[in-house]
Write a structure and sequence with these properties.
globular, disordered C terminus, Maltoporin, Chain A, mainly beta, 742 residues, 4 helices, 22-stranded antiparallel barrel
Length: 742
Amino acid sequence: MRVIFWRLFLTSTPVVVLTLPAYAQTVRTETGAGQLPPVTITSPEQAAKKPARRAERTQRAQSAWRAPQVRSAGSQVGAPGLVAGLAATPGRGDVSSAVTSLPAAVTVMDSPTISRLPVASYGDLFRSLPGFNVSNYGQGGIGYGLSLRGYTEAEHGRDIAYFIDGVPLNEISSLHTPNYADLNILLPETVKSIEIVRGPFSVEYGDSNMGGSVNITTKDSDPFGSVGISGGTQGTARGVATYSTTQGAWLPYLALEGYRTDGYRDNSFVNRYNSFNKITTTLPDGATVSLRAQAYGTEFGAPGYANRDLIQAGAISERSATNPTDGGNKQLENFVTNYSSGAKDQELKGALFVSHDYFNRYADFGGGQRWQHDDRTMVGGRVSKVWSGAVGDGIPVQVLVGSNWRTDFINAFQAPTTARTVTGAPVVNLGLTETNVAGFGQVQIKPLPWLKFTAGGRFDQFYYDINDRITPGGTPNISNGIASPKVGIAITPVKWLELFANYGQGFRGIDVPLELIGNPGIQPFKIVSREGGVQFTFERFKFLGSYWTTDSENEAFQAAPGLPVNLLGKARRDGFDLDGRFYVIKDPVKNVAIFANYASVRARLLDSAPSFYVPNVPNHVANVGVDFNVATVTAQTLSGSAYVTFVGKKNLTQDGLITTSPYSRITGKLAYSWPEGWTAFIQATWYPSDRLSEIAINFGDPTGAKSSDIFVSAQPRLAVLAGLTYRFPTAVASATPAIITK
């Protein structure tokens, strides 16, 4: 019997987290003390002109430093699509440290939005968002196939840079796949916000910031605790409890989750525990310090990938497992400290973290089962400072500088196995210390009320200390430095119109076990991306459109973990994103909106005939849906969302001769809440047609492959989940004096 021992709070190594204070914009003019003013002799004619000039400068500065507009900046706050929800959200034309002020396509989700989404696993947080392609491998507790801007879905999200409270999630030099990303540790209940920048246009993120970046901030506190249970098809059951309060010197946010599912296919069970523990306090000087500790563990089976032709011919069941002993386990503990002081646009932030990750996977992708073992400890930190002010003739300027560091101590091992027993010599056995030190900076300047320039960049230095136990000294230690400049412009001639353009470089570092061994001359994977776009923002309607291109110096592709990494040469991606939202009802107690987004992509290999296409990139992804939060009777509310996702065909071979079929996916959630604290919900996901195309992989030759080389993992036709949650208040209201009128 499969058992996972629940480790509660004592087993979770404490973690420290940085908190973000509420928005505050301060403009202060100070004169030096103890200095005599200069004496100036002015003619009567000049004196008459000075008041007018002063008035003009004052008006100009005040116009440029006006309060942030309530606009979307290409982002979403409070709904899938564009921004709607945070008061005074800075736009692209504002001089601000907010991510929404970047001259780029940005999406921001807040906690109420996430609560309305139908989320069965972390991939569902991103499915309805513009530009995302999300694929569920169906192989147990492993990372999803998330991709942006034309990158492949087959590489476990490696081409997006992920952070939680400033802690990087991408696993550098992973034996699984380069920069492997697993967000299963994320509890939706703990999320305060998710910020997504499409493209490599944020200076704060380096390695893996090619398709874009995802920055997740966890909650500091809530005025309530909660207990919830849910269950559904495929033997799924989940229990989660939280405790928090907004009163006291130390504000806790504690969450504990237990989860299990049998899965749709044979041997696709997942058992999981997750303990999240965070406390936040304010120091006497007003600075905020957060400490966070997390312990996560999972055990899972993996059904493997089945031959598509045999399934379609009825020769095998789509639910059958390739190898009933495939699967694995993972344990992770982390400790994070975050510090923040100063107003939003004068802020000093810092983070320190340590994390330990122990991962085993047994998988058969043809040629027999193999065992991959990855044991790593990561330590690091980051610091940044923002200064906002004015120069010259009252011209607003903001400067951001920062630095980050991480060191990973990695032991990686791979060997052939039968029924999880090693049967041959290891093919990978190495110890590795990899360090990344970086500095970054950005300047925003607004010379005119309708014009803002942004320029910045970062420099990342990597150091590798390699101990190849199979071939001692066979892989030399290397050191790479990568510069990533970024520039942009925003034009806002009227409050409802934003025009923007940007240029940015990004990169992915070298993976030692998969790419450097056998290729000592390999260089980091660098890209150059350009984007131009426009956004219209009205009271009830918002629309964003952008066109982008990305050129990469060297493309790499790995069909599945353990299989060879193919270096494909230069590649070019281009496409456009469209994102719109219309509010049918928009008032404080009722919100009903319809949304739609469409992303078109071409991902082509250059000068590599007969290879022409980057595999596993859909030519388009579109979503059409509705979300709502409506008061009904006696303070009760009805909320939820529903949307249809349309995914275009994907080239499974580099010659484009074998593809998937287009498919669609329908997802919805309905929740009803009572003022006493109860909420009941039901959600469902339905695949009305093709269920073999979400994840399909070519195990044959990159060019000239046959149909029989295509292997898939079928999705269930229908998955249903229902549950009940009870919230109880933890903040005690102060007694209010009675007012007596006679």
